[in-house]
Amino acid sequence: MDSSEPEAVRPRISAVESHPTLPQDFTTTNYVGEIKVDAAGRFVYVSNRGHNSIAVFAIDQTTGHLTPVGIQEIGGKCPRHFGLSPCGRFAVVGVQDSNVVRVFKICPNNGTLEAVHGSEYPFGSPCFVMVSNSLHSMLSVGSILAEQNDIPVPALCSCCRGVCALHISCL
To answer: How far is it, in rounded angstroms, from Cα 133 to Cα 51?
Structure first.
């Protein structure tokens, strides 16, 4: 491309639609953190650092357009990063400024999140969360978690060809 032709080197991206990830009455500073699409391509999840929530959107399977479903407060400050289980049944949220990792059950009908009772794990400033169905990852991460925090790796579900592995990194 010839840089003397500015139109030739600029990306041509245009917005198709835009949706707020916050309630209308929220006026404090907020930053979107993580954006993820579930494995089935039915829902989009967006973390809000400031409102301390995750916004949920349904994806129209014909048009690809989004419909707001709801906004789930995560019970802590700064949902830095989150992971979705490969089976689509759980979201694992690293709540950075609250020093915890929380597990939420995902409703298969509408994608909404519900906190799983007893699934709050202390972890110093979690900034990256990945859920996979790799036994190798589970073993290596399990030993790291046990050494650093003396907490078990939660077995999230049995539908992911075994046990989900949880990988968490901190700052």
So the answer is: 31
Tens digit of each residue's pLDDT (9 = 90 or more) over 2-54: 456 666 666 666 778 999 999 999 999 999 989 999 989 999 999 999 999 99
How many angstroms separate the CA atoms of 131 and 54, rounded? 17
Contact 164, 152 (CB under 8 A): no
**Separation CA 167–CA 56 (nearest Å):** 23
In terms of C-beta density within 10 A (0-12 exposed, 13-18 middle, 19 or more buried), how is residue 120 classed?
middle
Residue 99: partners with Cβ closer than 8 Å, 6 or more residues away: 122, 123, 124, 125, 126
The amino acid at 2: D
Beta bridge partners of 63: none
pTM summary value: 0.77
Helix, strand, or coil (residue 129):
strand
- Report angle CA 99, 82, 90 to the nearest 5 degrees: 110
